[in-house]
Each structure stands twice: as structure tokens, then as C-alpha cells.
Amino acid sequence: MRDPNNQLHVIKNLKIAVSNIITQPPQPGAIRKLLNDVVSGSQPAEGLVANVITAGDYDLNISATTPWFESYRETFLQSMPASDHEFLNHYLACMLVASSSEAEPVEQFSKLSQEQHRIQHNSDYSYPKWFIPNTLKYYVLLHDVSAGDEQRAESIYEEMKQKYGTQGCYLLKINSRTSNRASDEQIPDPWSQYLQKNSIQNQESYEDGPCTITSNKNSDSNLLSLDGLDNEVKVDGLPNNFRAHPLQLDSSSDPSNSMDGPDHVKFASSLHETKKANTGIIHGACLTLTDHDRIRQFIQEFTFRGLLPHIEKTIRQLNDQLISRKGLSRSLFSATKKWFSGSKVPEKSINELKNTSGLLYPPEAPELQIRKMADLCFLVQHYDLAYSCYHTAKKDFLNDQAMLYAAGALEMAAVSAFLQPGAPRPYPAHYMDTAIQTYRDICKNMVLAERCVLLSAEILKSQSKYSEAAALLIRLTSEDSDLRSALLLEQAAHCFINMKSPMVRKYAFHMILAGHRFSKAGQKKHALRCYCQAMQVYKGKGWSLAEDHINFTIGRQSYTLRQLDNAVSAFRHILINESRQSAAQQGAFLREYLYVYKNVSQLSPDGPLPQLPLPYINSSATRVFFGHDRRPADGEKQAATHVSLDQEYDSESSQQWRELEEQVVAVVNRGVIPTNFYPTQYCLNSYSDNSRFPLAVVEEPITVEVAFRNPLKVPLLLTDLSLLWKFQRKDSSGKDNEEVKELVTGEPVMIGTEVISEFLINSEESKVARLKLFPHHIGELHIRGVVYNLGTIQGCMTVDGIGALPGCHTGKHSLSMSVRGRQDLEIQGPRLNNTKEEKTSIKYGPDRRLDPIITEEMPLLEVFFIHFPTGLLCGEIRKAYVEFVNVSKCPLTGLKVVSKRPEFFTFGGNTAALTPLSPSASENCSAYKTVVTDSTSVCTALVSSASSVDFGIGIGSQPEVIPVPLPDAVLLPGASVQLPMWLRGPDEEGVHEINFLFYYESVQKQPKIRHRILRHTAVICTSRSLNVRATVCRSNSLEDEEGRGGNMLVFVDVENTNTSEAGVKEFHIVQVSSSSKHWKLQKSVNLSENKDAKLASREKGKFCFKAVRCREKEVATQFSEKYIFADIIFGNEQIISSASPCADFFYRSLSSELKKPQAQPSVHAEKQSVEDAVRLIQKCSEVDLNIVVLWKAYVVEDSKQLILEGQHHVILHTIGKEAFSCPQKQEPPEMELLKFFRPENTTVPLRPSVEQLSNLIKTSLHYPESFNHPFHQKSLCLVPVTLLLSNCSKADVDVIVDLRHKTTSPEALEIHGSFTWLGQTQYKLQLKSQEIHSLQLKACFVHTGVYNLGTPRVFAKLSDQVTVFETSQQNSMPALIIINNV
């Protein structure tokens, strides 16, 4: 078409909207409903792949398109009512249609024409609105080919052409075939894609040229269903004020986009309103493809011949009107004002015309003519001309303060500027801003403001000005429309994420706001979608309250939309995150979750049990215990502590138990631990070695301790809590019988399952549940998890841990609601770190504590201790009893007990059974075996002997492993045996933990379990009693029955160190016994007449005994284990020290003493001879004499007197060195300065010490104690003196005796006076092994007086040694002689 300047102008993609002439302006309510339906009807496609946007550290899945927004925008723009200040959707033309089957079609056209004129120009009709008074009328004759007479139609058409001209009329032929459903040729329904659901009779969008159809009241509705093929069907769902019109479309048709046909025609067709559903209706069934072409042809003819020339003519007219007035003034409008009013319009009249939104113009006002021209140019895509007209109009409207008109002009000027081809000028965004502000604030017209915003936002987005677009969209959100606000907020969010540097958090926040508004607008699906999109940003960033809010909303919306699984998972998230909500809020979340869950589970009652999120289970803290619970102590009977779940894990003690077990297994297997040995583990936890399948015994319970934690501030109640397991049964033939019992409802025959009916976990509490299984068959068991009902308590919340409100402690908690579900126990094994591959990668080993293998029956031992003390005095002996019970159905054998402290207890030696208790011992309840003695043998020793082999302490045996003397060595099923057990309080005071490990085997050897163990830890508190110290030294006297040397004196000091708290009045030393292979006590030396040796508190007693070597016949070979016991009694009862329990404890203490590491000097070959010599010299000063002090203590307790008894051991190794009964505390050395010195690497030759050398030779002088000599007769007094030299070693010794005085100190001379030895001054002798030699010497005195004869000095060396150990023997004790004168 040509513009006013006669320039050719091309129009592309023109669309035409056609609607019924009798229309009402759409009602706001109907528009709202329509928009709502459009949005809810448009959802994201199911299989749509979302865009992944990476922003910073976020990866977001975001739907690239928002079809619901596009549909909303289209529908919104099309449903805008026509208004007076703009002409864009006013009608331009009117089609008048009559059927060729009418009697008088031409007359009918005249009637229709008059009707149209009446409607347009009569003031009764405010609607529809017309563009210009001179509306184009186009006459259409409709001919039904299948029914009508074609000749007649042609002749009528000719008549019309005569009357209206060829440009103004048209003959449309349709329905070329009859509507025959069964016809072979199936042509697709041409209208189906255009018919719109719920669509209001749509007004045109801003670029449509409007036109109307008027129709004959008799016209066949079937004909009119076939109007245009390339059209967008617009539907009027409202009843009009006439009768039901044939052009009403049925309300169930559905809007869709126009097809790209030749002209992109928009056409409004109508169907009868009464046809409700378009599912069964086929439209255009009578049309052939030729008819389709005819309809297209008709629209084209109408547009090219009628509509566009009409518009071109109108634009020229308006333009001419304006240009003819242009020269009068610079502004077109001031010119038109003068033209119309002749003089300046007074202010008053304008003010009168003003309303809230400024001026109202009459329809023929010149200001409006320019707006009309601009709109027409805009409609035919002549944008530059349109812009200049809008721009001009804007100025004039602003001058007149006509704000509504000005805003319209600004808005369209901005759009025209944007649409101009080649973009000669930038988009004036401020025009739009002003327009929006004016519409919203001054005109209070939100619909127009919204249209502005929608247009402007699209324009800004197309220019990538996202932040401006977002600001604009957000500005228009308001309380008056939730749907609009939601859509705009969502678009704003998309703007934020599409920016050059995406604003992820702003996106998420606005998505949440949009979701909230969608929810208020009732658009549940869109709300859910928004929240889910936003969740991607908030998830896992530590914003827990925000996450809770989103998850809660998602859960709620999903539930409303019956997406139950999503609802469950959302609520699950709220509960499993560390919640910071208040208790009430958490309770609400939990109830909501349970409610949703219940609905889910009701939908599929037979489905698998769901995984529950609460309470938390700390899988790695799961402990598994194999065996029965420990029995409580029963009166005097106390069960062995064994292992239980109540004991804390202690790596040190578990290592000790392991060592004890290895020790006993090694003894059983002749000193070698078998390769397939693994320590027995009754309790498996995260510290134990769980890499192997644990072994459980059939018919013995398996207890699984599950650690629950309640993260919420609301108590949780678990009911019907039990374990889930799977069991593979093994037959005795070894075949596998796969019986998988997944649920607890398995046959009770295989595995019994314990159910805890109620288990309450208070708020934020960690609590363990112990669940039992009872295997009744052998096979492989796999414990999978726990199954329970999860619920919460109603009514009685515990407040601040004070406890429940009254009425809640009835045990049966009132459950508000509960769901059945499960949780699996999956335990991650330890990280592997052995091979290089394992070190470089992260690999975990297996953890099999929940997969026990059930094995055949084994014996089961229970041990009870009777009269077992908790407190003892050090060294006190007490008799208790141990009861062994076999509670299984198999006999047991090979019972042994092992302990690190064997000196603490004994079951008695092999002799104990042979030596019955003496009568007196039973009277006094003594633990010892006693014999009444006669009073004559007071100080002489009673000798007995015993072999240590009888007491289980043989050569090379393990003293810690003690076989338990069971009668017949077998304990039958159900049998019990009581054995005596003697205990001795340890020598150090304090609390002692003593571990016993009982080992036993089955009589039938089992392939999988070789042995079983039972542990017991005894705790004994000891308090101080006596402290015994002893020394031994050589006796100088030589009176021996055999005339052999070698007597010794033993000094024993006993101190009562008891503090009187224990209530001990006094200690009586009843007997001192010796035990040795070579020595024995012979008699007590210093005992006074008072036989009783009593020690009150803090008193000390001193005893002196004479010890002699045993006779040859008593002493067996060196390696025999026979010890000689000698008892010296201070009472009238002899305790037989060689019998149990005295000897047992003596041997035990001896063996523990021997176990202490002795420093062994290293031996080199060249020094061998020297070493041997030294060894021989050392041997002389060694003595293996052991002293046992037996005592009684009198204790007053509860005004009753008790007698306690006990024994202390002193082991004497070296002559002259003090030995103690209890280990001495080391005094910490005082701090001294550090000395730095260079170590000299000369090896010091091994030399025996002075004391050791001095014990090589024993000297003693025999002489008269006093000697009478008549000095007046003879001045020299000669006294014969015998010097006895006794060789204490087993080797030959060379001895030099030197008699010369070497005393230089004058005091010594003065005190003792001087005398002289006569004869040889030096003797050299060789003494054979243990030989005694006597030298006859003479001493010469010149005065009376007291003299010391002990001056001879003796030197000794081993004969076969080159080196002389020239060490003088220490002079023996002063040998005083008194010389008297007679």
C-alpha cells in the first residue's frame, strides 16, 4: 500500500480478527477466570530437558521457556476492553453475510446495512467501538453447494456487483459435499487447531485490524462453523443481550496460534454455545480441500480489495486534514485548537472537562484525529510515521494535562520507536516509565499499566537490559492480583539469572516470592515448580531455616497435587537436617510428615516397607553381643563378670584378655599357637576386628545394640521395634537351603525375634535399644536393619527435661499417629591401608559384625564365686569356693584358668585331696592344715618336704595356666561342681583388678569353634598388714653335729604397718618356716620365755634363727624340684607349710620372683675362664633360703572378734643383703647438676665385689675366753689359738694367712694393747672344695688385759686363676681374750 507521500509500503504477516457484531465488553471477572485457566492449563512439558546454567559454584536446571507466561500475555492483550483514549482495538470494517437460500438476499443485505448503521450511530450502543464514522461494509453471499442452486447464487452475485461494486461484495461457496461420516476420503478437521478453550470473545491485540461480521438471524449455524482456515479462532463465552446467536462458539473450544498461511489471517468464528464438548464434534466435515482454498481466497480478496484500500484512503484523509492546518502554528494541536474554537480556549472550560485522569476529549476533537492517524499507521506497520504522530500527539496531550491520553501516546511512541526498521533512534525507555507511572498512580488503571510493563519488559529483554527489565517487573507486583504478581516475579527471577553475571540468590529469592503468590492464586503446580527451582540454590548452603520453609511448602503443595512421593521426600528433608526450628514447629513438621506418609502407605499396603528418616541411627556404633545376659549376683553367689554390653570398651584390657587367651591356647597346643587361631570376641563393636564372619552358637541369643539419636526437640515413640534379618539355612549334610526371610514374619522355627513394644526417645536424646534374635538352626544369618512404627507422643511434652506432665507416666503413651517403616544398618568397614594401591585410593574393608554364622551346639560354662572377699589384708589367706555349672546340652572338658596374677589364688595342689583337714583346723575355720604339737619341741624345727611339681610349678611349665581339677575331668550337661579356692591378698596395698580367663572345650571336637572362654575380673582392695625384712649372715661358730661348717644366722624383722582403720587389734606371729633345696631353719635363737609373739599397732619384732645345710640324704640332685620345709612354731599348733595352701602360695610367689628379668652379663670366649671364676666366687655368697612368716590377726568387727590369717614370703639370695616381703618404693633421686663427660671405651674387666670375695673363706678363732697366767713367775704368757679356715666355694682356693701387725693407728694399740704372734708370720695353704683346715697358732702376751685376737689377715684366690684377687678378707668379728694374773 502507499503512504500519504505516495511511497510504496510493504505489509508483512497481517492478521485479521473477526468477531460477532453484537458483543459485550468482557467482564473483569470473566477475564480473571480466563487468565487463570490459561496459566494453569499451560505446564512445562514432561520430557522437556531443562537448561543447565552454571553460575559460580551453582549448577542450576532452569526451564528455558515459560509457555504459561507467553499464553498469559497473549490472552491478556487480546482480552483488553476497547477504550476511548486509543483506537487500536476499534472496529474498522463490517462483513454483512446472507445465504443464497434466502428468498430475497439483496433485500436482506439492505436490512443488515441499516442494522449496522443503527448500532454504530445510536447512542444506546456503547459497544462495540468504531474506528471512524465511515465504516467499510463488505457484502458476502454464502452459497451452500450441496444444498443450494448455483445459478441463482451467481445471478444474485451479479446483482450485488451492480449495486455495491466488485470491490465491495463476494460470493463464497462452501460445503461441496454432504456430511457423510462413512465417506472414504477422510479430510482432517480444519478448525481443530484454532478452536480455543474457555476463550472470551477476544478483542484484537494491538497490531490487528479489527472487523465485524453481522449475520442473518436465520443463517445456518453449520455454515458459519467453517469460516476461515488460516485464522486464530476467538471465542465469546458470554451470553449476549440478543437471543442465542449462531456465531457463538461453544465454550469448550481451545485457543491456539495462527498457522502461517498466505496472509496470516486472524478470523473469529463462532459455534453454537450449546455444544459443550468438542471431543466428539468434528468441524468442517462437509468441506473439501477446494472449499478450504475458497475460504482462503475469500479472506485474501476481502483484505486486498476492501480493507487495505479503505485504510489507505482514511490515512490520506486524516493526513490532508492535518497538513492543511500545519502552517498556522508550530504545534499541530494548537493549530487544530484555533481551527475548532476560533479563539483561545479559556482555562475554565478545560478545568470543567478534567476528571481524575485529566482531560476528556469529544470524539471529533482534532487532538484525537492525530491519534487515530497514528494508530492506523501503526496497524499497517508504518512505524516511522506512527512514531512522529504519537510524538506530536504526546506533546499536545501533555500541554492539555490530559494524562490518560498522554500516557497512551507515550506508550505507543516507545513501541513504534522500537519497531522501526533499521532502528534509527534508541528505544525511549523513559517514555514507558512515565506511561506506567501515569497509568498506575494518576489514572489508577492497573490493566493499562500492566500492558505497558509487559511490552516494555519484552523490549528490554530483547536488548539484554535484564536488570532494568527485572526492576520494571517487580515494580508492578501488588496486592490486587496474585496471579499477575506471581508471573511478573517469576519473569524478574529469570531476568536475574539471565544477566551477564547471573544473580543466583536474587533469582532464588524471587522464585520463592513467585511461588508464594502462585500458591495464593491457587496455581499449585506452578507454585511447586517455583519452590523446586529455588531449592536448587538454597540446598546445602547452611541456610537451614530457608531450606525448611521451602521443603515444607514443597511437601504441602506436592501433597495437595497428590504427588505423594515428592511430598514424603520433602518432609523427610526437613526432619533429617539438623533443624534449628522451635519444638512446636518441629512437632508440626513431624505430624505433617507422618500424615503424608500414612496416606502413601495406605495406597500400597503390600509394597515394601519405606525407609524412615527418624530417629538417626549411628550405624558404626552398633554393637553385637553373642550369648546370654549375665545373671545378677544371688546372695553369697557372685557370677563371673564375663563380657556384657554394659562394659565400656578398653583397648588395654582387651589386649590383656587376648594375651591370656593366646597363653592358654599355646599351652593346650604344646607351646605353639595354631595358625588358624583368632581370639574369641563375644562383643563386636567399632574397635573390634570385624573382617571375619563372627560365629554364633545355635540356641544362644544374639543381642544387637542399636544407637538411636533423636535430632528433634520433640520426643519420638517407636513401637513394635524389632530386627530385620535374612537367614540361609544349612543342613547337616552341608547343602545350602536358601530360605530368605526378609521380614520378621519369618517362621518362628528358624530365628526367634524379640519385639520391644514401646521405646521412647526424648528430645535431642541419644539412646540405645538392645534387640535380640534366637537362632534355632545352623546357617548364615544377615541382620539387615530395624523395623518399627514411628510416632510421636501427644499431650505430654517433656519440658526442659523435668519430665512429662502428670498422667503421662502410665507406660502406655498415647500415640498421636504412627507409620510403619524400616531403617537399614549399613556399617562401613575400616579404611584399608596396606598395599600401595590401597594407600593411594580410598578403599574400605568389610565389616561383618551383622552377618554371623550360626554353628552347632557348644558347651556353655557358668562360674559362680561363693564367699569371695572384696577386701583383704596384704598377705591374708582366705578360703572361698568356686562353682562351675554347665548350662548347655553338651559335656565340657579341658577346663583351665589363666591369670596374669597366679600368686593371688590356688585350687590346692595335687596333695590337697590326699591330706584331709585336721580337726582343729575346722574348729578355728582356718584355711591351713594344722597339727597340734606338744610343748616340748618349742624351738626346734619340724621338717617336711614337698615337690613343687605337685603344685603345678614344674620346670618349663607356664605357672599362669592352671588346670582346674574337675572330678573325671568332664562336666556333664546340667552338672555343677564346687571346688575350694584359696586367695591371698597381694603384697602391695591398694585396689587390684585381677583377670581370670576360664578356658574349656567340647568333648566332641567342633570344626569351627575349637574352644570357648569365660572371663572374670575380680576387684580386691588390700590394706597394709606386716612388713617383713630378713638378712642372713654366716655364723662364726663351728659346732655342727657333723663337724662341717656352713651354719648361718637368719635375722627376721617383722613390723606391724597396719593402720587401725581395718580394725586389727594385734598380729600374732604363729610360725616361721623356711623352704629351700639346701638349707633349713634349725632353731630359734633369741626367743624369751614368753612364747607368744604379739605385735600391736606400729610395733616391730626381731627374730633370730639358726639355719643349717640339709643333710645329703635330704638334698636330692641339683635339678630336682624337691624343697625342704622346716617349721618353727610359736604357738601350740603346727601349720604344715608343705601342704596346701601354704606351699601353693609360696611356690607361686617364688615363680613370679623368678620371672623377673635377671641381668645376665654377656659372655666372650677369651674371658670365659675369668667369668667362671667370678661365677664361682659369687656362688659362695649366694644362698637360696626362703622364709615364710605365718601370722594371725585379731580383728574386732561389729563387736565380734574375727581371726584372720596370712603369710608373707621373703626370698633370700645373698648373704648379708637385706630382703623384703613387699616390693620397696623407689625414692625419687634428688635433682643434681648434669655432668658432661666423655665415656671411656675401655671395658672394665669383670671383677667380683668386695663382699662376694669376703665370703670365699670363712675364718673362726678358737681360744679360751679368759686365760690365767702367773706373770710374776713367767713374764711371757703363751696362749694356744686355733684358726679354722673353711672354704665356702666349690673350687680349690689358695689362701695366704698373714700374721704381721699392720695396725698403724695408735688408738687401736691403746685400746687393745699389743701382743705378738709367735712362729711363722705367713702361711700358704690350698683348700679343697668346701674343706675345713685348722692352723695351730700361738699368741704371746706381756700384760694382763683384754686383747683382740682378730688380727690375722687372710688373702684368697682361686687356684686355677692367674690373677690373684688380692683383696683382704674382712677381719672377722673382734675375738676378745682376757688375760688374768694369778
Automatic annotation (TrEMBL):
<dbReference type="Pfam" id="PF24545">
    <property type="entry name" value="Ig_TPPC8_1st"/>
</dbReference>
<dbReference type="GO" id="GO:1990072">
    <property type="term" value="C:TRAPPIII protein complex"/>
</dbReference>
<dbReference type="InterPro" id="IPR058540">
    <property type="entry name" value="Ig_TPPC8_3rd"/>
</dbReference>
<feature type="domain" description="TPPC8 first Ig-like">
    <location>
        <begin position="646"/>
        <end position="873"/>
    </location>
</feature>
<feature type="domain" description="TPPC8 second Ig-like">
    <location>
        <begin position="874"/>
        <end position="1014"/>
    </location>
</feature>
<protein>
    <submittedName>
        <fullName>Trafficking protein particle complex subunit 8 isoform X3</fullName>
    </submittedName>
</protein>
<dbReference type="Pfam" id="PF24544">
    <property type="entry name" value="Ig_TPPC8_2nd"/>
</dbReference>
<dbReference type="InterPro" id="IPR058541">
    <property type="entry name" value="Ig_TPPC8_1st"/>
</dbReference>
<dbReference type="Pfam" id="PF12739">
    <property type="entry name" value="TRAPPC-Trs85"/>
</dbReference>
<feature type="domain" description="TPPC8 third Ig-like">
    <location>
        <begin position="1017"/>
        <end position="1210"/>
    </location>
</feature>
<dbReference type="InterPro" id="IPR011990">
    <property type="entry name" value="TPR-like_helical_dom_sf"/>
</dbReference>
<feature type="domain" description="TPPC8 C-terminal Ig-like">
    <location>
        <begin position="1256"/>
        <end position="1358"/>
    </location>
</feature>
<dbReference type="InterPro" id="IPR024420">
    <property type="entry name" value="TRAPP_III_complex_Trs85"/>
</dbReference>
<dbReference type="Pfam" id="PF24546">
    <property type="entry name" value="Ig_TPPC8_3rd"/>
</dbReference>
<dbReference type="Pfam" id="PF24542">
    <property type="entry name" value="Ig_TPPC8_C"/>
</dbReference>
<dbReference type="InterPro" id="IPR057651">
    <property type="entry name" value="Ig_TPPC8_C"/>
</dbReference>
<dbReference type="InterPro" id="IPR058538">
    <property type="entry name" value="Ig_TPPC8_2nd"/>
</dbReference>
